[in-house]
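anyone else get weird line breaks when pasting these?? whatever heres mine. first is seq + tokens for prot A
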Amino acid sequence: MTTPITVDGVEGAKTLAGQQLGPSEWVEITQEMVNTFADATGDHQWIHVDVERAKKESPFGGPIAHGYLTLSLTPLFMPQLMKITGFGMGVNYGTEKVRFPSPVPVGSKLRASAVIDSVTDVKGGIQLQTTLTFEVEGSAKPACVATILVRQYL
């Protein structure tokens, strides 16, 4: 298991700026995960949920995970990369940029690494700008690259 970097408080969090974190552990992307995500979001496009049709007609050779399913695994991977203590709560503030350069085939394994781009003061706490890279085992291109903003409040 990957050991996360642990820091405490504002000053500890600021030491993360510029650091490469990870990678996380591999997670297999199953058809059940894809189907559950499709049900939760209403996105039942056949390239995700119709296994037989995807095998026959998809340029990917089978079903693929939704791009936003990949991005939604951020809360699974981030605790494997870092742990910040000394704050009352953290909230997702938004994203600066998200790209999906390559597909995530069902049955493949996915993991993430991160770079803490910056840590800045905001009223009541700090904001971390982090670039996450999600990689598919054996693929030359990342599946997702996302710059996210998280705020930690005292």
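and prot B, same format (seq, then tokens)
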Amino acid sequence: MKKVFLNTFSFLMAILVLFSTMSFTVEKHFCGKSLVGHAVFSSVKKCKSETHSCGVDSMMGHMKMDKEACCSDETDRIEGQDELNFASTSFDFIPQTFIIPLSFIIVDLLPELSPEVINYPPYQPPQLVYDIQVLCQVFTI
């Protein structure tokens, strides 16, 4: 169980490092205010047909197409981490001048126990053989 947990945790940490260092782009193509296409890791396909339009012709109620004024592209670049820091930092919570005196204080506070003094409460082992007549209170008169 411990090995499975360790392998799963290691795999998840490797995935985290991979995705934190990877950068990618998201491209979006708009015709007017509507999103026509989007792509991740590749370029977006432009609208080729005349189904997307930006304005309405006032005479007939038909849509008119002006690709240059209507369509727009938007590119979002998500940057990853460029370099990883493999150096570990050490924290010094207790200054080294206090380590030795602190160790003497802790050792002096602990009580001394000799190995030959073992203090157990009185213990009587259980009785293995029982007298059945006494237990059932059956006596011959």
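btw re prot B: The beta strands are 24-31, 34-40, 55-56, 63-64, 71-78. DSSP finds four helices and five strands in the chain.
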